[in-house]
Amino acid sequence: MASSVPGYSPSFKKPPETLRLRRKRARSLGAELAPGGRPEPAPRRAALAAGLPLRPYPAAGRGGGPGAPGRNPFARLDNRPRAAAEPPDGPPQAPGPFPGSRRERDVLRAEKPEGTALAGPLQGAPEMPSHTSHRSFSESDMPPSGSAELPVDWSLKTRLLFTSSHPFAWADHLKAQEEAQGVVQHCRAVDVTLPPSIQDPKLCTELRCAFQQSLVYWLHPAFPWLSLFPRIGADRKMSAKTSPWSNDESLQHILMSDWSVSFTSLYNLLKTKLCPYFYVCTYQFTILFRAAGLAGNDVITALISPTTRGIREAMKNEGIEFSLPLVKESGHEKKKASGTSLGPGEEQAISDEDEEESFSWLEEMGVQDKIKKPDMLSIKLRKEKHEVQVDHRPESVVLVKGANTLTLLNFLINCRSVIAASGPQAGLPPTLLSPRAFRGATMQMLKARSVNVKKQGVSGYKDQFSLEITGPIMPHSLHSVTMLLRSSQRGSFSAGLYTHEPTAVFNICPPVDQVLGKETVREELANCGLHPKTLDQLSQTPVLGKSSLRSVEMSDYVYNWRS
Q1: In Å, what is the CA distance from 426 to each residue of 253, 258, 259, 531?
Q2: Which of 122, 189, 385, 424 is deepest in the core (most CB within 10 A)?
Q3: Other CB atoms within 10 A of residue 293 CB
Q4: Using one digit for the tens of pLDDT, what is the confidence trace for 414-445?
Q5: Distances, alpha carbon 312 to alpha carbons 165, 209, 215, 324, 390, in Å
Q6: How many CB atoms lie within 10 A of CB 365?
Q7: How many Cα atoms occupy the beta-carbon half-sphere of 170 within 13 Å?
């Protein structure tokens, strides 16, 4: 009868019988020892009695010693992920699960904190971020994330947030003499070189003056009640502000005339290599002008982003030769982008030639009479649709080089589209941002403040220090501040960088006709007002593509970064 029951096994025993056999076997074994000189644990003896397969016994030294209490490897007093730079400051933990076991791997995976892809110099190759940038250069040109210098970043930043285990109190409450000395050092372009480590930064007058020097920038126009950066998407912030020029054409004419003088002065400084670069911020696009020798170019360059088909057509009509570095163009499209090199008749001839070539394969098949060819209007509309698809996108960035930048200057001075015709920014000239003084400019200071907070650690609360810098942060300021923090924070700090997104595409690597050597750049731009190390960095060929630096971490004087 029992054999007819499904799943019945003759070796089946009732639970009381199993317990009795286990007690009997335990008494018979007595004080017998398992291999390795340790008594067999009761659960292991029970498993042996039941005939269950067992894993090999751990090797000596890999687990606890005789009499070591059992430990749940998944138990943690603090379930919060430990920060990457936070050293273990508690007593040594009990031994974990067996190395190499699946349980150990699960525990390590569960305890791995988020955002620890940045590897230090001693941890092997750094883990690169998941973000993939579209670059126009070889991946071998990318500097390693774990080096003594950062890659050059030509984007404008709106905010920098530095954190460190060392206080930033030295950056607060500058004395009147220190503030004045910092301004003088900026105007005289004094190069300050600090030691690798400063024992007491708060008492270092040289550090505090240099920090004040790094916060200076020049702006035009300047209205104390109006924030003039950023300009793209700033209508909501400006809507409640007073704009006396919005409905006064004579006042608008005066503002624009004054702006034209300042713009021309700034360009002349750039041309004579007394100013390294500057930005023109309009309500719909931003322009970066760079002197010859920077970013690997031997001529003056200007990058405009984002652009529209209307702006590009207007530039062509003014005879400005330009290119779209991120858009693949055919041969005749490149000629058309050069401005006046093609007349109406030549352009029509090229279009007819392209049309004949595109339908030549139909003639070879003998079906050309059965296919209706599209008329010239359809072809033109299709091309215009393709051109409009890149509008307002990073791919619409325009590159102007050499003498064409002067033509671009005249175009911008006379172009009405650089000024909003309606809205809160109506009648307001574009913002000019420069690291050096120019005619009509106003000296401004980036805002800096330090904050001390308590951060919960494994063994209690720890001090966490931060330094926040806000404003239109240009590339030279970013590099100068990081050089100062390298010394004041003893080669250990982290930073979050907030980018003005329309300017991230300025990090593309455009075609270069001739690359100037570092010594040549230093000699030709010696009077531009930048620190030699900052000048060396800005002369590098850009490698970030359409991306920009998002986070930076320095550990033991070595940078790790993400874009």
Answers
A1: 12, 17, 15, 38
A2: 424
A3: 26
A4: 998 899 999 999 999 999 999 999 999 999 99
A5: 50, 45, 36, 10, 12
A6: 9
A7: 22
